[in-house]
Amino acid sequence: MTLTAKDVAQITKLLEDSSFDELDLEIDGVKLSLRRGGSSAAPIESSAPPAAAGAPAGAASRPAAPAAPTPSTADPAFRDVPAPLLGTFYRAPKPGAPPFVEVGSAVEEQTIIGIIEVMKLMNTVRAGVSGRVAQILARDGALVEYGETLMRVGKTG
Amino acid sequence: MAAIRRILIANRGEIAARIIRTCRALGIETVLAASVADRDSLPARLADRTLCIGPARSTESYLRVETVVQAALGAGAHAIHPGYGFLSERAALARLCEAQRIIFIGPTADQIEAVGDKLRARAEAEAANVPVVPGGAAADAAAALALARRIGAPLLVKAVGGGGGRGMKRVDRLQELPRAMELASSEAGAAFGDARVYLERFVTPGRHIEVQVLGDGAGRVIHLGERDCSVQRRYQKLIEETPAPGLAASLLQRIEEAAVRFAERLAYRGAGTVEFLVDGERGEFYFLEMNARIQVEHPVTEAVTGVDLVAEQIAIAGGEGLRLGQRDVRPSGCAIECRVNAEDPAQDFAPSPGRVTEVSWPGGPGIRVDTHIEGGSRVPPFYDSLLAKIIAHGADRAAALARLRQAIAATRLAGVASNLTFLAAVLADERFQAGGVDTGFVARLLERAGGSERGSRA
């Protein structure tokens, strides 16, 4: 059995109408990977701020469309660590203290990688994956959105 | 008070888009607090910035007071507009805003509490010399029965924390009362976190007439006329219009004055609506509740008065007070609004979420469409099913109605089921055309048409 273009179109529609973001399908050796939010998605740029002068505070310091799932998930060697909630991100347990993790730090699923503050309530953020911190995207003290990629972790082994 | 230059909108759907439009006209920046499900919505594109505040489920996003305030602080917003529904009538949001020096575009936390507690609202109405439906609270079963005997059946058991038709049980015979109260109480406890219930006479037939008010928060209140929202299905409004057809001018004036007295007593701040049950034949009216927010059906008032109610909300919140006097409000003509919902009349109005594949909204003179839906828009299953409000304005009711019927007929919508054909049927009904129907009208219409309509669709 093979997948026709029509089958793929139908499967794509099913994914679009579902609440899932990714679909990996393997039928008789044919592999199909679909991901919501790819470059061919609807011509929608959700959070692009207006030109510099009118930009709300903090907007200019970040790319226009942060938020997970990002296309980087396509690279299987790296996993994104998304913000579990909106709030102020801190890399260290308190001002002046060394950060929980640095680029190169080894992390496991339960490793604390930062704190997100919501109205004085401190929420610890865990890596959720194991590996080595490859990139830290969220700035210390910055507002992060729900789902925004805080770090990328390279898979080990 | 510092001018409001950036507003965080803690809502979604058509009302978010509508608030953004006024902000743009006023040169105010907008930050939309959106859930994952709404990140690609039309309001998200209209806003200057969108912040994703949480997952699709509203209890984890739109209903999170702390998250919404944190988003406003983080985005440097001076004010929060809560829209309607969600957190709009949560005193906790207004209170946290007050503590964080963010302007809440709405009444004070105390005012929200005063009208949110339906027993307290009744007491305030009585104190303001505004008639209420015979009824009240009862300390125990014996007292409830004694009260019920005085009121007489049929009566309603209502939740103190309810409103908008939610949390009510009808009792036709007094022996059903203890069971109904028990049921209503446990349901109210689960739904509103407040198990208290009270009794009211079931007034029927009645018309639902409400009065739009604006208050400066210092005791000055004006009204912007009435809206007739009697076309309801299971307490959900479907069609709203102003002026209320066939209502005696003297009765209407008494209703408007009562609404103003009630809001004055609270020194109400911002836009609000006082709802009444009206018995036009007997010339009597009763206070139902006050809604401490902008209302879904506010555009009909805007159409006839020319007042942008959201702009007035922002002005009052920004400390400008009332920019209008009562004599500046001069309604002209008639306006009728239809709510287009993603629900299937053939399936007992079951919600029909999905993706709108194609849509063409009507336009032309006297037609306004408030919507967040365009071709390709998703209708997530997590929220209410309102797709759009189509508002027609005309020199008189016949002109407005003709425009609205044409507009409904010209609307094309594919991908999700909608109530468009049902709306067209209501507008074509001779009783509706005559005007002045009561709140039982839709139920009777469905009863008559029920079997044949279902048959024709099968």
The CATH architecture of the largest domain in chain B can be given as 2-Layer Sandwich
How far apart, in Å, are the first and last alpha carbons of chain A?
35 Å
Mean pLDDT of chain B: 94
The CATH homologous superfamily of the largest domain in chain B corresponds to ATP-grasp fold, B domain
Percent of sequence in beta strands of chain A: 25-35%
Distance between the termini of chain B: 61 Å
Word description of this protein:
The complex is a heterodimer of chains A (157) and B (458). With 157 residues, chain A is mainly beta. In chain A, 8% of the residues lie in helices and 32% in strands. Chain A contains one helix and ten strands; from the N terminus they run αββββββββββ. In chain A, the strands form three sheets. A four-stranded antiparallel β-sheet of chain A has the order 3-10-8-5, with no helix packed on it. A four-stranded antiparallel β-sheet of chain A has the order 7-6-4-9, with no helix packed on it. In chain A, β6 and β7 form a beta hairpin. Chain A starts with a helix and ends with a strand. The model of chain A is unreliable at 38-72 (pLDDT under 50). In chain B, strands 14-13-10-11-12-15-22-20 form an eight-stranded antiparallel β-sheet, with helices on both faces. In chain B, strands 3-2-1-4-5 form a five-stranded parallel β-sheet, with helices on both faces. Chain B has a four-stranded antiparallel β-sheet with strand order 6-9-7-8. Chain B has three domains: 6-105, 3-Layer(aba) Sandwich (Rossmann fold), CATH 3.40.50; 134-201, 2-Layer Sandwich (Dna Ligase, domain 1), CATH 3.30.1490.20; 207-450, D-amino Acid Aminotransferase, Chain A, domain 1. Mean pLDDT of chain B is 94; it is low at 452-458. Chain B has 15 helices and 23 strands. Chain B is of the alpha+beta class and 458 residues long. In chain B, α3 packs parallel to α4 (91-100). Chain B starts with 5 loop residues before the first strand and ends with a helix. The chains are: A mainly beta (157), B alpha+beta (458). The A-B interface holds A 16-17, 19, 42, 44-47, 49-50, 54-59, 67, 85-88, 117-119, 121, 143, 145-148 and B 6, 29, 31, 34, 36, 39-40, 44-45, 48-56, 61, 66-67, 69-71, 74-77, 96, 354-355, 376.
